[in-house]
Amino acid sequence: MAIYTYKDFEQAAKNAGLLGQFSKADLTLAQQNPDAGMSILKYKQDFANATTDAQRAAANSGAEAVRSSWGGYTGGGDGGSFHLDAMSPNDYKPSAPAPSFTDTTTAPTYTNRYDEQYRDLLDQIVNRPEFKYDAETDPLYSQYRKQYAREGERATQDTLAAAAAATGGLPSSYAVTAAGQAGNYYASQMTDKMADLYQLAYNKYVSDHSMKQTDLDAIRIAEQSDYQKFLNDQSQYNTDRNFLYNQYLNDLNQYNTDRNFNYSQFMDEINNQTLSRQEQTAMSESEWQREYEIAQLAAAYGDYSGLQKLGINPNIPVTSGSSSKQETDPVERARIYGYLIDKGYSSADAKYMAEGFATLAQAREYFEGTTPEPAPEPELTTEEIRRQQTMKLLGISAEADKQAQNTAMYNQVLDDVWNMKKDMVSKEEAEKFLNDAVAGKYISSASKTMILREVYGGA
Fold first, then answer.
1. SS3 content of the chain, % helix, strand, coil (to 5)
2. pLDDT tens digit sequence for 245-267
3. How confident is the model at residue 71, as a pLDDT?
4. Residues 62-95, buried b or exposed e (16+ Cβ, 10 A)?
5. Is 321 exposed, middle or buried (0-12, 13-18, 19+ CB in 10 A)?
6. 401-412 b/e (C-beta count within 10 Å ≥ 16 → b)
7. What DSSP element (H or E) covers 325?
8. Which of 69-78, 154-163, 195-204 has the lowest mean pLDDT?
9. How far is CA 65 from CA 55, 69, 344, in A?
10. pLDDT digits (tens, 9 = 90+) for 178-195
């Protein structure tokens, strides 16, 4: 929620005497966000009250932070310029990360817990041995044999005892025969029982085979039940996974839709900033001249704020009209221009401020408060002495001759660089050529800077 209104800001800036120091961009930001405008005003007051470079730098940094955060631009070293924070499509950052598909569930697996039993039973059934009956290994046969042997022995003894009783204890062949017959009866009974024992053993063989088949069928049914349960679990897993994946696709589509919309808005902002940058930096010379003449008129009545806003020292005498600009040699003006560029002024500001000084020494004295020591006169060669004597005979001053030489050389180098540009020579190659010209003292470093800007453009 806003604390201040634009009216509050405007009144506070007027009371502080700083309203005239607000750039068009700062005023626009204050109209859109009065709180930001008040913040910039506070930093401007801190800058005005600062006593050290560190304090001024801190105040300027604070104001720049407000401009950049709330307006997307910066104001330069003095806060009066307009430098829009440049953005490119590569600067776009999505507001949220792209959704990703993560399946946290675990796919079901199937393990046949009856596999070992099934294989064992199937092996017993398929590889069962042929039926063979061995009475000696049949426990039932052994039992019957003992029983019938015991009964035969008892019958034999009973028969002998009965015969002895009949004969008064005398042995007889009849008794022996009768006893043998009784024992043989039970032996024949045992032989007849063998057929029954064989059938019983075979029936058990068949019954065991049938039981194993029944067990195998039971295991098969149990295993099929387990496998069906696995299939049901797998089907449910696939259903849940497909649901989650479709949900991911919906989220991804929505993310792409939002991202495309936000990117479109971002590109619109880039286009708007590009347009704003062009509007803010496209002040033509005629517009500057109009403001300059208005500022001159105000200065005639003691108001120098207009001149200060244009970066012109109000202490330098100026007169109204286009003739107010001091007549300065083009080469000297180029030196002044280069000096102002090195001081951190923009190209437009340096161009017009250079017209307020007649010499580079005057500009240095104004900005640095000192007058540079004159360079020692160089020793003249014989050719130079003859040239001075000829000039003296012709009535030409040394200063006029020097200016004529410098101007001619400057114009010659300028023409050469223009021709280089026509021949598609790069700016870097042209700069090497100008460096050679500076090294040969044909032009100054300031002239080099001015020629590069005039021919190839740039700040």
1. 70, 0, 25
2. 898 899 999 889 888 888 888 77
3. 76
4. bbbebbeebbbbbbbeebbbbbbeeeeeeeeeee
5. exposed
6. eeeeebeebbee
7. none
8. 154-163
9. 15, 6, 20
10. 556 665 666 666 676 777
pLDDT tens column, 120-129: 988 988 888 8
Report pTM: 0.35
* DSSP element (H, E) containing 349: helix 347-353
DSSP 80-121: -S-EE----GGG---SSPPP-----S-------TTHHHHHHH
Complete DSSP assignment for 186-227: HHHHHHHHHHHHHHHHHHHHHHHHHHHHHHHHHHHHHHHHHH
Q: In 3D, which of 288, 281, 289, 307 has the Cα closest to residue 459? A: 281
Amino acid at 233: D
Highest mean pLDDT (candidates 105-119, 300-314, 417-431): 105-119
H/E element, 413: helix 398-422
How far apart are the C-alpha atoms of 41 and 429, rounded to whole Å? 46
Is the pLDDT at 322 greater than 90? The verdict is no
- Cα separation, 61 vs 59, in Å, equals 5
Angstrom distance (rounded) from CA 225 to CA 236: 17
Angle at CA of residue 19, ends 283 and 24, nearest 5°: 25
Residues 6+ apart with CB under 8 A from 215: 121
